[in-house]
Amino acid sequence: MPMYTGLARVARTTGYPVVEVKNWKGRGHGKMRGCKTIVPHHTVGPTTGNYPSLRVVRDGHSTLPGPLSQLGIGRDGTIYVIGAGVAYHAGKVRKTAYSNPYAIGIEAENTGVGEPWPHAQLDSYVKLCRALIDEFKLPVGAVLGHKEICAPVGRKIDPAFIEPQMTMAEFRGYVRRGYYSAPVADVKPAGTTKPKPKPARKAWPAAALPVTGGHTTASHAAWVKLLADVGYKDKSLTTAMQRWLRGLGYYKGIIEADRGQAPVFGPMLVTALQRFLRAKGFYSRAYRIDAKRGTATVKGEIRYINSQTKHYK
Fold first, then answer.
1. For 74-150, where are the alpha helices, taking DSSP H only?
2. In principle, which of 81, 108, 139, 275 could form an S-S bond with 73, CB 3.0–4.6 Å?
3. Quick count: other Cβ atoms within 10 Å of Cβ 259?
4. Is 237 exposed, middle or buried (0-12, 13-18, 19+ CB in 10 A)?
5. Cβ–Cβ contacts within 10 Å for residue 79, how many?
6. Is the C-alpha dihedral spanning 56, 57, 62, 65 positive or negative?
7. 137: number of Cβ within 10 Å
């Protein structure tokens, strides 16, 4: 079982600056069992600085010890090599191949609530993913966002490519090609007939959100708008929701941002959200208050969001 002490060498093949964080070669929660998946994330960190989340990613926070990923990417494209062993970044996942002992995590600095991604950072991100799959002889399909591997589906939204807007399929298209240049569609075989463009969907609140069991960029943006309109304009949606539900008397936990820690959408916050939705009639008593942000909870959230469109007309 290996410690991946060659990660700095791999990172340097991208051509971007590489910072080897002190003692990284011995840092990890034990040795890896192999590499089957590359998992991109965003940090939900501060709005200023190149890689202000380094301390949290390296050392962890009150509920989860670090390292929280093996690699990080600053806003200028600098790659930070943080650990060589197992990192606690994946959480509960749908397959063993996505779990921490088999997955290399990359935490790129971004608030995740619409902060524009600099071109250099995206290019570094794409090139690092390409270098890693080449190093470990993995297919492009092994690059899977945290939002794609998490269980239940909808528990995570990262990495949120909002500005510029990009799907994970499009991100993998850039990885397949080996560099980023905005914006292009995923790579397709020559001679493929172009599909007719679909009419642009109106944004919430002009159009109701589809009630599905998973959050989308649109539903995330709707939550941000709703909370901002009632006075909670934190850069992190998690922090805004903690403050909002605390103000309503539902959330009893800590607000990590007030302690200089990375926000955590943990069980206490999910419990508070479920109790709020039940009180409003959007989370049936047929479902338990189980502190899990599963399909029923997410559908309740979206139904609640849609119920608020009346206040925007």
1. 119-135, 146-149
2. 108
3. 9
4. buried
5. 28
6. negative
7. 8
Q: Domain residue spans in the chain?
A: 7-177, 217-312
Q: Are 111 and 50 in contact (CB under 8 A)?
A: no
Alpha-carbon distance of 112 to 41, in angstroms, equals 9
Q: Is 8 left (phi over 0), alpha (psi -120 to 50) or beta?
A: alpha
154 closest CA partner among 236, 211, 224: 211
Q: Which two tokens stand for residue 234?
A: 């934190």
Residue 41's Cβ-side half-sphere holds a number of Cα atoms within 13 Å equal to 26
Rounded to whole angstroms, how far apart are CA atoms 192 and 178? Answer: 21
Cα separation, 17 vs 282, in Å, equals 49
Strands 71-73 and 103-108: parallel
* DSSP label of 86: -
Domain 7-177 has CATH 2.70.150.10: no
Q: Is 107 helix (H, G, I), strand (E, B) or coil?
A: strand
In angstroms, the Cα distances linking 181 to 44, 114, 172, 192, 240 are 24, 19, 13, 21, 33
pLDDT in tens, the chain (313 residues): 699 999 999 999 999 999 999 999 999 999 999 999 999 999 999 999 999 999 999 999 999 999 999 999 999 999 999 999 999 999 999 999 999 999 999 999 999 888 999 999 999 999 999 999 999 999 999 999 999 999 998 889 999 998 898 999 999 999 999 999 855 444 444 444 566 676 666 788 888 899 988 888 889 999 999 999 989 999 899 999 999 999 999 999 999 999 888 888 889 999 999 999 999 999 998 899 999 998 899 999 999 999 998 888 6
For 32-47, give the DSSP string: -----EEEEEE----S
- Token pair belonging to 64: 């989860």
